[in-house]
Write a structure and sequence with these properties.
Blueprint lengths: L4 H4 L11 E6 L6 H12 L3 E3 H9 L2 H4 L2 H11 L6 H11 L8 E5 L5 H13 L7 E6 L2 H9 L1 E3 L6 E3 L26 H15 L2 H7 L3 E5 L4 H15 L15
Parallel strand pairs: 1-3, 1-4, 2-3, 4-7
Antiparallel strand pairs: 5-6
Helix pairs in contact: 3-5, 6-7
The structure holds adenosine monophosphate.
Length: 254
């Protein structure tokens, strides 16, 4: 038997697709958190949620009592955005962690045009191997309201439920670890309307920024969970120029 490996070599194995920095965009409640968790499992890269990072500050008595912490808490509880400089700094710190080297999923950031511009410049400054690509998940507003007001989260494992569409087996209790589920303070209808106003006014202008740079796709978030995930994967491959047998669902990727 020949030991000449060249003569036996098969076609080179397809390099694993690593998506680099990803941004999931969409109105409050479109499922960014849920889809981010699916991408985390698929790619083994971390999810960076500025909402989670800010809640960690708010829930830490030492941090919440600083001027920045107190400001963040009062704005979050009213469904308003925390100042760009504060959030940018939190993200800059998080991006120094070694687990971000193969990419990461930003969830809830950037949420303003100024944050998007800061992020582009920051990624150049830190020699990011690739620029950020953005996928918007789109869902109609009435559906969003039920998603938001019905949302419950396990404080221990972060599993997300919805009392209308995806309830736990036992009311109010996590299926996985029997912890009592929590409702976020900003998941009321009043805070939802406020957040929608903020989204329209401040976050929608982010979309033309990424569109103009050719780094943007939209997927239909009203499709079944798995279909949305598949469409997001297709969009990511497309945006990174990776050829694949990927075909978007009927609802499609735009
Ligand atoms: P989320 O969990 O992403 O809905 O975020 C919860 C709250 O945290 C928001 O309503 C804002 O008050 C604040 N927040 C999260 N991300 C940002 C951001 N990128 N810019 C400003 N405020 C943010």
């Amino acid at each position: 038997m020949s030991t000449n490996s060249a003569s036996h070599s098969a076609a080179p194995a397809e390099a694993p697709f690593l998506p680099g920095p990803i941004l999931l965009l969409g109105a409050p409640g479109v499922g960014k958190g849920t889809q981010a968790q699916i991408l985390v499992a698929h790619f083994g890269i971390p999810q960076i949620s500025t909402g989670d990072l800010l809640r960690a500050i708010r829930n830490d008595p030492a941090k919440a009592s600083t001027p920045d912490g107190a400001l963040a808490k009062s704005l979050m509880d009213r469904g308003q955005l925390v100042p760009d400089e504060l959030v940018n700094q939190i993200v800059a710190n998080r991006l120094t962690e070694p687990d971000t080297v193969n990419g990461y999923i930003l969830d809830g950031f950037p949420r303003t045009l100024a944050q998007a511009q800061w992020l582009d410049a920051h990624l150049v400054q830190i020699n990011s191997p690739a620029p950020i690509i953005a996928v918007e998940i789109q869902v109609d507003e009435p559906q969003l309201l039920r998603r938001i007001t019905g949302r419950r989260t396990c404080p221990k494992c972060n599993r997300i439920y919805n009392i209308y569409f995806n309830p736990p087996q036992v009311k109010g209790v996590c299926d996985d670890d029997t912890m009592l589920l929590c409702q976020r303070a900003d998941d009321t209808e009043e805070a939802f309307q406020k957040r929608m106003e903020e989204y329209r006014a401040k976050t929608l202008p982010v979309i033309p920024h990424y569109k103009a740079a050719g780094r943007f796709r939209t997927v239909n978030g009203d499709a079944p969970l798995g279909t949305v995930s598949k469409d997001i994967l297709c969009a990511l491959k497309d945006l990174r120029g990776v050829s694949s047998d990927c075909s978007a669902s009927e609802t499609g990727v735009r």
